[in-house]
Design goal:
The protein is globular, with a radius of gyration of 17 Å. By secondary structure, it is mainly beta. The protein contains 2 helices and 11 strands, in the order H-E-E-E-H-E-E-E-E-E-E-E-E. It has one domain.
């Protein structure tokens, strides 16, 4: 029901929404300290700079908590690290690196059409939903 509601809210291709890449785009390089920022393994972002439309991330923790943040700046850190400065700190003073499940980019997209394929898995409560999207300018 929640997915059907989301599809209805997106009104076909009219409404844009943020979609996670679902990849480990950033990997924590150490524990999170609110006063420092988010230290991640070097990925080249400090050297290349922020790209418009590629500054939003989804942070999922091991307990299932999800935080959506915007990267304000990226700086080279010690060793093979980069420090991500976020628009809003995570609600923790300190957080062990092992608590991060996945950090992925968010891309602003809209549905490419008005159709979505629901493949039900043995019950009416679980389904795989397939739909096409197109990226839009942020």
């Amino acid at each position: 029901a929640a997915m059907r509601g989301a599809l209805m809210a997106w009104r076909g291709g009219c409404a844009a929404f943020w979609l996670s890449t679902g990849r480990h785009d950033f990997v924590p390089a150490g524990d999170y300290h609110q006063t420092v920022g988010l230290a991640v393994r070097r990925s080249g972002w400090a050297a290349s700079g922020l790209t418009p439309g590629r500054d939003r991330i989804r942070i999922e923790l091991a307990d299932g908590s999800v935080f959506l943040r915007r990267i304000v700046s990226v700086a080279a850190g010690p060793a093979a690290e980069e420090i991500l400065s976020l628009d809003e700190a995570l609600p923790f003073e300190n957080l062990p690196a092992a608590e991060f499940r996945i950090i992925s980019f968010l891309t602003l997209v809209r549905l490419a059409g008005d159709s979505a394929l629901f493949t039900w898995r043995y019950t009416q409560w679980a389904a795989d939903v397939t739909f096409s999207v197109v990226e839009v300018d942020a």
